[in-house]
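job 3f2a | input accepted
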Amino acid sequence: MTASDVKGLWHVALRVTDLRRSRAFYEEYFGMKVVWAPDPENLYLSSGSDNLALHQIPADEVADYRGLRAQFLDHIGFIMGSVEAVGRLFERVTRDGVKIVKAPKRHRDGSYSFYMADPDENVVQVLYEPTVSKVR
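job 3f2a | predicted structure (136 res):
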């Protein structure tokens, strides 16, 4: 296998406790659209060149998952087109009462971001990164 065989990361899959609530969160704040919903427990969202899979935790297993709050996934990140876009989304989610994990800050590489929690407390970074944001 060569580096040219690998086309990039295709998706991140998250287990969720309320599929409808999680779908609404990613549609509302990131403009994602459902690209495939094979059954009532699974759906796949995209904003163009990515894929976020949401998988409903069966109701009788939710308590088991809640007890595992040690999460190995650090965070997922969404790239934004400008510092101002990051600021606008921060204002919006703050107004809507979304849990903020880390307030907006400028990083040493020139990027600017904040972190928030999705409905299941998965950490989501909202990021402007000068070199990547220009090409996306």
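job 3f2a | The chain has a mean pLDDT of 89.
job 3f2a | closed
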